[in-house]
Design brief:
7-stranded parallel beta sheet; alpha/beta; Rossmann fold; globular; UDP-galactose 4-epimerase, domain 1; binds nicotinamide-adenine-dinucleotide
Length: 327
């Protein structure tokens, strides 16, 4: 990690013009809502709608958020936005879901690298001041030691994660070379309302809830003992807002609950909450699936006032949302 002697003057969220890439997605749309609530002057979203959903921005659009349905891998898309708006801060949430890398490995890698390189080049040329980049726990791969802190070596097991790891290195190198104000939020597995529940790109929690709500048996891949560190979306957003003014350039931070639930446990909790007693289908394990993921969130807790939503409580809120929003 590169520590600059003094943190550059960073624009506050309040009163700033902020671009959120991938802002029609799960985390991005919650972030957009929060940035508006925090008093951002103008919030702009660019999302190619690969997995984004305008419904996620319903209230934000009513508040005057500007949505560009466009692609950040195309440099001229960003040039147009920076020419048109006086952007101060960029939150880079754009990505294609991990599962897509099993279908189109090269493209998943490209999205995770081209987008951030285009942003860094614009930042280097003075188009905006601060870049908050979203990394992922997937850059660590399967745990060599647990809980995984920010010093855990990178060991990406998919091209999605390899692209994310390359992006993290790109941030650090641009900061080193050009003294940019760019830093890295590294969430672990998020869950909550608005997370994509459709098709093979859906995560375990939304797809299981959707299947049970539609009387389709849930599926377990492999023995179901693979574990993840699940954090409720609101806890992630609260953390990001508090971390924004205090992280140093090139610094990264895990955003996690420091807990571990196996896929089997998660499915069992969902089926219990929905009172489902039917069949659970056993499928072969997915090639390259990370085995276990438990983050050390000591750094996070030392830096902010971190309040954790209990997993069962977050799950109940999530289920309630899907019950009201999907068939
Ligand atoms: N959800 C999680 O559990 C999790 C965990 C760790 C890290 N993250 C990171 O958080 C960020 C947000 O993830 P998410 O869960 O909200 O994903 P998401 O898929 O819901 O949102 C990503 C958005 O990016 C858009 N997008 C994809 N390619 C684009 C492109 N080339 N140009 C413009 N938009 C594009 C998609 O349409 C989508 O709306 C990502 O960087 C992801 O790697 C998420």
């Amino acid at each position: 990690m590169i520590r600059l002697e003094t943190r550059p003057q960073r624009p506050q969220v309040f009163g700033s013009t902020i671009l959120v890439t991938g802002g029609a997605g799960f985390i991005g749309s919650f972030l957009v809502d929060r940035l508006i609530a925090e008093g951002a002057k103008e919030v702009i979203v660019v999302d190619n709608m690969f997995l984004g959903d305008v419904q996620n921005l319903q209230s934000a659009l009513r508040e005057g958020v500007i949505l560009y349905k466009d692609d950040i891998e195309i440099n001229s898309t960003l040039s147009f936005i920076f020419d048109t708006h006086n952007v101060d801060i960029v939150f880079n949430c754009a990505t294609k879901a991990l599962n897509y890398s099993f279908v189109n490995p090269r493209n998943a890698f490209d999205t995770n690298t081209q987008g951030v390189l285009n942003l860094l080049e614009h930042q280097r040329k003075g188009c905006f001041q601060t870049l908050v980049h979203f990394s992922t726990s997937e850059v660590y791969g399967s745990a060599i030691y647990e809980p995984m802190d920010e010093k855990h070596p990178f060991g990406p097991t998919t091209t999605y994660a390899a692209g994310k790891a390359a992006a993290d290195h790109a941030i650090a190198s641009y900061v080193n070379m050009y003294k940019l104000d760019a830093f890295i939020m590294r969430p672990f597995n998020n869950y909550g309302p608005r997370q994509n529940h459709k098709g093979y790109m859906a995560g375990i929690i939304p797809i299981t809830i959707w299947r049970v709500l539609n009387a389709i048996p849930p599926e377990i891949h492999g023995d179901g003992r693979q574990s993840r560190d699940f954090i409720y979306i609101e806890d992630t957003i609260n953390s990001i807002i508090q971390l924004y003014p205090i992280l140093n350039p090139a610094e990264s931070i895990n955003i996690s609950a420091d807990s571990q639930y196996s896929v089997r446990e998660v499915i069992s909790m969902i089926t219990q909450q929905l009172d489902y007693q039917g069949e659970i289908i056993q499928k072969p394990s997915r090639n390259a699936d990370v085995v276990c993921h438990r983050a050390c969130n000591r750094k996070l807790k030392s830096m902010i006032n971190f309040e954790l939503t209990e997993f069962s409580e977050g799950l109940a809120r999530t289920i309630q949302w899907y019950q009201g929003h999907i068939k």
